[in-house]
Description:
The structure holds 2 protein chains of 2 kinds. By secondary structure, chain A is of the alpha/beta class. Chain A has helices at residues 36-41, 49-57, 75-87, 106-109, 153-166, 185-194, 210-225, 258-266, 278-286, 290-293, 298-317, and strands spanning 60-67, 94-98, 118-120, 123-125, 127-130, 133-137, 172-178, 201-206, 230-241, 248-249, 270-276.
Amino acid sequence: MAPRNEDVPENAPEHCPGTGSDQAGKAASCAGCPNQAACATGPKGPDPAIPLINERMSSVKHKVLVLSGKGGVGKSTFTTNLAFALSMDESIQVGIMDIDITGPSMPRMTGLDGETIHQSNSGWSPVYVSDNLGVMSVGFMLENPDDAVIWRGPKKNGIIKQFLKDVDWGQLDFLVVDTPPGTSDEHLSAVQYLKEAGIDGAVIITTPQEMSLQDVRKEINFCKKTKIPIIGVVENMSGFVCPGCKKESVIFAPNTGGARRMAEEVGVPFLGSIPLDPRIGKSCDLGESFLDLYPDSPAHTAYLSVIEKIKAYVAAQA
Amino acid sequence: MERSPATSNLSQVKHIILVLSGKGGVGKSTVSTELALSLVELGKKVGVLDIDLTGPSIPRMFGLDGQQVHQASTGWIPVYADETKRLAVMSLGFLLQNKDDAVVWRGPKKTAMIKQFLEDVAWGELDYLLIDTPPGTSDEHISVAENLRQYNPDGAVVVTTPQAVSLADVRKELNFCRKVKIPVLGVVENMSGFVCPHCAECSDLFSKGGGEAMAEEFKVDFLGRVPIDPTLTTLIEAEGGSFVNRFTQSSLYPIFQKITEKVTDKCESSS
């Protein structure tokens, strides 16, 4: 088997056969490599689940990841609103997959708190908000919604693999994947398992202050390292219009130019800014669709403009 | 090799407090920073350990971006945030060559790093060690709980914002504390209300009162409510000088004085 370049670590000895090769740990050049034993005994070849995932994902047209290095910036809120907006067109089938294992927010935000997953011989059935919007989350698998999911990496990876392999989505136009903050197990697994099936791109969410931007730059570097195309950056919680006097205030000051400038600096598209509106948080708490209920909000227009850009990007891919 | 508590680097640390939250972006690092600075104002020697490996915020909070950790025979020397060396800080951010580098690590590597942070940092004598954590209940949290067991940490300060989506995750964190037997010192409700600087009307951006109700339900103490203060990011991020020196000018300082008092009362009465 020819060496596959992506399997050769940067600091490997010369002529390393690659960690995935059947010569790994056995080739002449492996002698003296500190990882020789690990390579010689590790499982060989691609993960047997990947062909199954590819088969499942073959009926999903577009896969979009929602990412952010920082927590609490609105990944899940954005995911929910994106999915609600896409599913307004009844001919479009939408799925949400929540891979935030230890803090799943999707069940509540979509108004599906307390629902459970059903199993059939074609796999796990997602929970449906409406005919064309299905949701899958660890939150549906807990006996008590307050139970802590105290899992280390490998167990989290296992459930993500199952979500991709065993969930019977049927024909989907969009699968929106909501992620936890950071650049660790969940992100690596999602990217690794979906690599062959193909990810259309990632939407990166941030808030305007540097504290959040510094983590988001890391996330952008993660996307570049793992070769996920970036659809663009969305700045959430930018500005707040006081319901009393209608004047705008800055809550999280964009001291370093905000997301727009950061996007320019790292050379990724900027999709738009969404202002704070207390009604967004309220609709998420109640599991209602903000975009349906409050068409008068300035955030409504901002959301739709960002979502249009994402649709256009995805349509251009096809 | 396990080192016995008597000879380790944590043996001269009197009190250990974890700052936890199931949810991200609720202000764990901000609360850690403000607690640390309030403790320093009380004359305590304080250490802050940042175990959020993939998104370390602590260096920037203390205005220490770009600082490096030095190695000595006793271990890693933390970075000091003030001239009098009363405030020591350790974070993965200090170990990165480029601060935008992504730390793409799976669980086992994170676990090893945390173990090293707990064993190899030469804190010296400390009154308080505050541990700032990432969101969730996974590798970092399990590791820190396991490795700290022999040192009997005083407990955890749990941070939340008032809306239901955040509380749902924080309830999980409270259950996590119960399971791993870390006492909960109390709950802080952050981002509770915003006073419009133009008309002084108070808007509840993320609802209100949820943290207090949850604390009651779980029978843990409620430490206080912290409003959104837009000048805070400005104070932290302004160039020149550092937040360490500016903190007492912040409108949140009096609120944190009260919270800190409750925390120190609890820690020092039990020891």
